[in-house]
What we know:
Elements: E1 5-13, H1 21-28, E2 46-48, E3 57-65, H2 70-112, H3 116-137, H4 140-159, H5 164-183, H6 185-188, H7 196-214, H8 220-224, H9 227-252, E4 267-269, E5 275-277, E6 286-291, H10 298-316, E7 319-325, H11 329-339, E8 344-347, H12 352-356, E9 360-362, E10 377-379, E11 382-386, E12 392-395, H13 407-418
Parallel strand pairs: 6-7, 7-8
Antiparallel strand pairs: 1-3, 2-3, 4-5, 6-11, 9-10, 11-12
Amino acid sequence: xxxxxxxxxxxxxxxxxxxxxxxxxxxxxxxxxxxxxxxxxxxxxxxxxxxxxxxxxxxxxxxxxxxxxxxxxxxxxxxxxxxxxxxxxxxxxxxxxxxxxxxxxxxxxxxxxxxxxxxxxxxxxxxxxxxxxxxxxxxxxxxxxxxxxxxxxxxxxxxxxxxxxxxxxxxxxxxxxxxxxxxxxxxxxxxxxxxxxxxxxxxxxxxxxxxxxxxxxxxxxxxxxxxxxxxxxxxxxxxxxxxxxxxxxxxxxxxxxxxxxxxxxxxxxxxxxxxxxxxxxxxxxxxxxxxxxxxxxxxxxxxxxxxxxxxxxxxxxxxxxxxxxxxxxxxxxxxxxxxxxxxxxxxxxxxxxxxxxxxxxxxxxxxxxxxxxxxxxxxxxxxxxxxxxxxxxxxxxxxxxxxxxxxxxxxxxxxxxxxxxx
Length: 422
């Protein structure tokens, strides 16, 4: 066996970046993009640097290498670059959120002063900024900001002499269609009613075209102004439609494991960095295993909030909820705290368990998919009821990806498997 030199180093940085180390590890030490050496092992841990800087963290690396310490310099440099790329996206998104908020205030001031060209310019800037903020953060404040942009846009058009029964629908309809999918996620999920958003966009464009041709009271700047809303909402609608069609195509080729199969066993870290194994529940509890796409997915947040409301009822029936997602434990911890969940979110950063349950899907069209592996894969949202003997008894419907499994859906099954004669 070849002997390797041991090179040890410490990389120090500030902030919450330690929550992303698993993503960085996957990106830095993936098989296709290694330094020209054989990396045998990687050990990572974090610890406080000093009592005076509790936010600072350090990672200790043991890299086994047959080459010179120049390899280490390359590794260190690349690690720091990746660290920067992880943090910059959210920082930039937050900057756009601030820009959008300030632009909204300026648009309101220009409307109040009846200087409508300035109002159009600042409202357009607000729309584009808020949608960038929304795409990268999926936060409630970003949705509220986008909604306010639309209302300010309608008011600006009204002051310009627009016909309200035309302008209000063509500004608001596409945005409301997107919100409807989120509000009725339990019925529409990711794949049902994919015609709703394109239809609303088509109606909006028809009404816009009608006003553009017929309303001679509006100047050309007022007539062009709504285009920014169509671009922003159109991008989101195309993304939702393509994503839904992509999932439908994947489902046709076969989705996940079926009822009656033995559930693959696994052990993963929960949001508290504790190991949780499926075997922990064997012989004692049933498990509802829920796969989510990631922390960035707004519909997954809605789904988890819905499960949280029913969590106690599930436990009364001896059903414990376990969520599996592709994010690191630190990200899962933050999500669990924000949603106030009383069940675990397990970290499947390598998508190994996702693969065991046959739920991996290529998602190169999604901005967030490059966080998990080089193949740009993420989990399909799906749920499995696993009985205390480790047998899958119920699966979410293949034609309704992302559905919330209700207790009423699985109650007859629970009665059967909990009966004395089962």
